[in-house]
Amino acid sequence: MSVLVVGSTALDSIKTPYSENPRLLGGSASHAAVAASFFAPVKLIGIVGDDFPKQYLRLYRRHGIDLEGLQVVPGKTFHWAGEYEVNMNNRRTLTTELGVFETFTPKLANAHQDTPFVLLANIAPALQHHVLDQMRKPRFVVADTMDLWLNIALPDLLKLLKRVDALVLNDSEARQLTKEDNLMVAARKIHKLGPKFVIIKKGEHGAILSSPEGFFVSPAFPLDKVVDPTGAGDSFVGGLIGYLASTKGKIEANLRRAMIHGSVVASFCCEGFGLKNTTKVTRQAINERVKALERIARF
Ligand code: AMP
Predict the structure, then answer these.
(1) Residue 60 confidence (pLDDT)
(2) If we measure between CA atoms, which residue out of 280, 238, 295 comes closest to residue 263?
(3) Is residue 278 within 6 Å of ligand 1 at its C-beta?
(4) Residue 212 CB: number of other CB atoms within 10 A?
(5) Rounded distance between C-alpha atoms, residue 173 and residue 35, angstroms
(6) DSSP β-ladder status, 20-26 and 42-49
(7) Burial of residue 106 (number of CB atoms within 10 Å: 0-12, 13-18, 19+)
(8) What kind and span of H or E run contains 22?
(9) Between 186 and which of 114, 180, 217, 261 could a Cys-Cys bridge form, CB atoms 3.0 to 4.6 Å apart?
(10) Region 27-50 average pLDDT
(11) pTM confidence score
(12) Mapping DSSP to helix (H, G, I), strand (E, B) and coil, where does residue 47 land?
């Protein structure tokens, strides 16, 4: 089954203590769509300006991503710039230029409205609502978010939580949303806001799933070297929903393996700038890391 992904389609300028990489292909939807494409057909909903390099469009196409919902309009592509410290858990946003995203109100094609799996990747909650309003009975809807929307669009986000099956957010966002330090208690509070499944990401320490069946803890794939963690969270959720869309049976029965696949795709993302490493990965390489994670986590 296929996955519809809406989110930011961006140019990212990323600075680490060792290197500077301007105008890479980035954005929450780009990372998530490429990650999901290893497992299922993907439809991308987004907008870019006429400065968006053609080679990036080719890259989406090489991953079989349906670009009918990607608008190319006059103006500037969303541009995000960030700088990492030596400890790459610490990142500072230098610039966020919305560009053509400022006026983005996507109208979904008829064929897109029946997509069974929907990923509302990180973008303004109002836009996530706008896309969800146009979907006809999706089977599974996952939303991602970030601290910015908790700060400036909380009412919209709270309304969204009543409409989604799963929420994915990182540990500091879960604490901010619930005003609760203990993540187990925070997850329970988030269930009360709407989502049946709550997934809390903890960066290099993996991710926790809270569901009616209880808790599951997915490790992160251990890496010797992290080059650039930008988009790891988006790759995680993209891999997760792509894997789910490729499986038969109940969502509940497949979610744990979906988290492991998400963690593995995220690990590849961290090994290169932007999407450089993710786009080189093969399904076989993913399967090998999944097996390695199984060995690591078994006891
Ligand atoms: P992550 O590393 O998972 O937090 O995701 C980083 C990606 O999020 C980058 O590729 C950015 O282009 C994108 N991004 C940063 N700020 C925003 C924003 N305000 N809205 C949507 N996407 C954003």
Answers:
(1) 98
(2) 238
(3) no
(4) 8
(5) 23
(6) unpaired
(7) middle
(8) strand 20-26
(9) 180
(10) 98
(11) 0.97
(12) strand
- Which H or E element spans position 5? strand 3-6
How far apart are alpha carbons 14 and 26 in whole angstroms?
A: 10
Q: Which residue has the tokens 């060792």?
A: 18
Q: Which amino acid is at 212?
A: P
Name the β-bridge partners of 208: 200, 217
- In this prediction, residues 160-185 reach a mean pLDDT of 98
Amino acid 299 reads: F
Q: Whose CA is nearest to atom 21 of ligand 1?
A: 123
Residue whose tokens read 């792509």: 242
Tokens of 241: 């929903």
How far, in Å, is the centroid of ligand 1 from the Cα of 143?
14
**Using CA atoms, how far apart are residues 25 and 49, in angstroms rounded to an integer?**
13
What CATH number has the domain spanning 3-297?
Answer: 3.40.1190.20
Using the CB atoms, write b or e for 7-21: b if 16+ within 10 Å.
Answer: bbbbbbbbbbeeeeb
